[in-house]
Amino acid sequence: MRTWFWTLIVLAAAVGLALVLREHSGNVLIVAQPWRIELSLTLAVLLVLASFIILYCLLRVLAWIGVRPERFRSWRSLRSQKREHELLENGWINVLEGRYADGEKDLSKLLARTKSKGRKVLAGLTSARAAHHMGEFGRRDEALAQARLSAQDNPRLSEATATVAAEMYLDQNRPQDALVLLQPLQDASTRYFHATRLLLRAHRQLRNHDRVFELTRLLSRRGVLEKSEAVQLIETSAAARLRAGGQKEFKAIWGDLKADERALPDVALAAANIQADQGNIDEASKILEAGLAARMDARLLNAYSQCPPEHVARRLSKAEVWLKSHPDDSALLAALGNLCLTGELWGQGERYLLRSMKIRSDMRIHALLGNLYDRLGRAADAMKHWRLASSVAGVLPALPAHRSLPAADTRADPTLVDVEQLPPQAKVLRDMHVPLAASAADFVGDDEFSSVREDLPSRPPVDLPRPQDVDSPDSYPDEYFDSAPIPGVDLSQTSDRPHRGSGNN
Predict the structure, then answer these.
(1) Which residues pair with 39 in a beta bridge?
(2) Which of 354, 353, 364, 363 has the alpha carbon at shortest distance from 392?
(3) Which three-class secondary structure string do you get for 272-334?
């Protein structure tokens, strides 16, 4: 807009000057002895303007020629800055895309040629991050040292270097080194939110639950942490503080918690365990009830169902009130069943446990039903539910009943020789020497054993069960226990059936 304004002014001045010169047709006389120059007014004005323009252009050319070395240096500097910016930009893009080797190559070129401390720090930190992702921790530490040296005169760059280095130390599981770098930033100002988050992460790795609790509350008040993450951290750290402090520090730690924090499952469970260990069953009940009022947690219900018999009536009445609003809660039904078992209310407990089992076939419910039926003398039902509990737990495989073990591998036993596979030139078994294997230390020959066989009383053969009766537990005689041969034992010497060696000494 300003350019158009001045253009209009110049055009108006030119038109006005042309009109004035047209009406005044005077002459201009220049006397310079021995010359006498006479010009028209119009020509004189035009010559003056032309002289001014020529002189101005001449002076500008002379000025440009005079400052040419400086302008050349400035041009070279701008070109160098442009190249450095391109290297820094390409290096950052390669690191962000995961091409760490290419990024480190560009950044190394930038570190070698740049004279700017700021770009040296940025290139060093980015190169360190690339080396860190590639697992080259030696090169990473060298790049960090170079960046730290370049940033020592600039507080902002020093803080950036410390933050980046601490984050990489935490990735490497070196929280103590990260604390050395982050603690000064936290002491200087609590508004370094990223540094505070890294400090929280370091204390979590070191299991400093007191500092985790404080920093989580600080970040939660500032709105830096999400609510779900903050609640989880407070729950874990507060429960750990209660367990570590025990009864001595219980009042101080418990008083520092808010009402909603006390109702968290881990916190309520830790506090209730401390009170129960001290014999304060009523206080433990109140803590668990407050937690269950906020959330029906299975762990709290399990703890609530475990109490001395004299407290069963109160807890049972309270749990029955909860059952009205949560009729399909399997954990609540199991807790009611456990309370009934403690109070020896067998029928009511069986109904609660069967209702819970219909909702969810849980290992604990089957175990409770097994205990219940065992107390009632129903051994078959007790064994059934105990077997189901073990199969649900996955600890033991569910083996079918009345099955014999698989035959043992006796191919390496030195006392068992297959005569049909012996070559013709081999000696017969009675001519063999006593084997050196430990499993045949009591081996005797046929000649020595024949005298003992005649002195032994004859025993009737054992009637083994028929194949169709194997599954019947009553079909097994008392002498029959397994059909598998035992490794390292000569069955010809231990069996009652007729063999070449008879009886057992």
Answers:
(1) 28
(2) 363
(3) HHHHHHCCCHHHHHHHHHHHHHHCCCHHHHHHHCCCCHHHHHHHHHHHHHHHHHCCCCHHHHH
Residue that is last in its domain, among 153, 184, 203: 153
User: Where is 40: in which H helix or E strand?
Assistant: strand 35-40
Residue 419 domain-assigned (yes or no): no
Q: Which residues, at least 6 apart from 59, have a Cβ–Cβ distance to it below 8 Å?
A: none
Contact 139, 157 (CB under 8 A): no
Whether 468 and 454 have beta carbons less than 8 Å apart is answered as no
Sign of CA dihedral 326, 329, 332, 333: positive
In this structure, of 49-58, 229-238, 448-457, the range with the lowest mean pLDDT score is: 448-457
**Which DSSP string do the residues of 240-255 spell out, in sequence order?**
HHHHHHTTTTHHHHHH
Instruction: Provide the pLDDT for residue 189.
Output: 63
Mean pLDDT of the chain: 78
Residues 6+ away with beta carbon under 8 Å from 11:
none
How far is 505 from 502, CA to CA, in rounded Å? 9
d(CA 376, CA 123): 78
**Residue 94, pLDDT score:** 92
Please give the residue range of the domain that contains residue 115: 79-153
d(CA 328, CA 135): 52
pLDDT class of 493 with cuts at 50, 70, 90: very low
Q: How far is CA 118 from CA 91, 291, 370, in A?
A: 15, 54, 73
Report angle CA 35, 36, 41 to the nearest 5 degrees: 140
Q: How many domains does the chain have?
A: 2
Min mean pLDDT across 22-31, 220-229, 282-291, 340-349 is at 22-31
Q: Is residue 98 part of a domain?
A: yes
| Within-domain flag for 84 | yes
Helices (H), 326-476: 330-342, 346-359, 363-375, 379-393, 446-455
For residue 392, give both structure tokens: 């649900």
Taking the complete model, does pTM exceed 0.70, yes or no? no
| Coil vs helix vs strand at 497 | coil
When pLDDT is averaged across residues 58-80 and rounded to a whole number, the result is 81
DSSP state of 134: T
Q: Is residue 331 part of a domain?
A: yes
CA angle, residues 484, 489, 493, in degrees to nearest 5: 100
- CATH number of the domain to which 94 belongs: 1.25.40
Return the DSSP state at 464. Answer: P
According to the model, what pLDDT value does residue 188 have?
Answer: 60
Q: How far apart, in whole angstroms, are the C-alpha atoms of residue 437 and residue 372? A: 52
Could you tell me the CA-to-CA distances from 180 to 121, 129, 162, 213, 219 in Å, in that order?
20, 19, 9, 20, 20
Q: Where does a domain end: 378, 397, 416?
A: 397
- Closest Cα to residue 324, out of 296, 344, 304, 348? 296
